[in-house]
Design a protein that fits this description.
The structure is a single chain. The protein has 139 residues and is an alpha+beta fold. It is globular. It has a single domain, classed as Immunoglobulin-like, CATH 2.60.40. The two termini are 28 Å apart. It is built from two helices and eight strands, in the order ααββββββββ.
């Protein structure tokens, strides 16, 4: 069983890698802060594979293969909320913070060692909404 320090180092490395992938693979997502522009920014480059809405909140997942971009809009600006990424029974939960416009973006990497395809689920628990979406991935 890994030590708590090793687990923290792993999560910090994962967040840095995820941010680097976001910049390299989905640069169009990093344009603007307006909620509608944010969800429309990727254009045709990446297909929408899942979407959900609850109250004021919307979640859109775009991508393919093993790299997916997740946009959240309609959150309380500056709010801290819980994100859950599950893929083939492997679960990662972490807190995230909405920007000053109530948006949040991250990259989900659902691939699981030893599997060539599977189903991922992304969940959100925030003060205004709670929702989840599922989508398939493959190597």
């Amino acid at each position: 069983m890994p030590s708590e320090a090793a687990g923290a180092l792993y999560m910090a490395s994962f967040v840095v890698l995820r941010s680097a992938l976001a910049t390299l693979l989905f640069p169009a997502f990093l344009v603007g802060t307006d909620a509608e522009a944010a969800t429309a920014a990727p254009g045709e480059d990446q297909p929408i594979v899942a979407r959900a809405s609850a109250g004021h909140c919307r979640m859109i997942v775009r991508g393919g293969g093993t790299v997916f971009a997740v946009w959240l809009t309609g959150l309380v600006p500056g709010e801290t909320f819980l994100i859950t990424d599950i893929s083939e029974d492997e679960k990662i939960e972490h807190d995230a913070t909405a920007d000053t416009s109530g948006n949040h973006f991250w990259i989900s990497l659902p691939a699981v060692r030893g599997k060539s395809m599977g189903t991922a689920t992304v969940g959100l628990k925030a003060s205004r909404c709670q929702m989840s979406v599922s989508y398939g991935w493959q190597m």
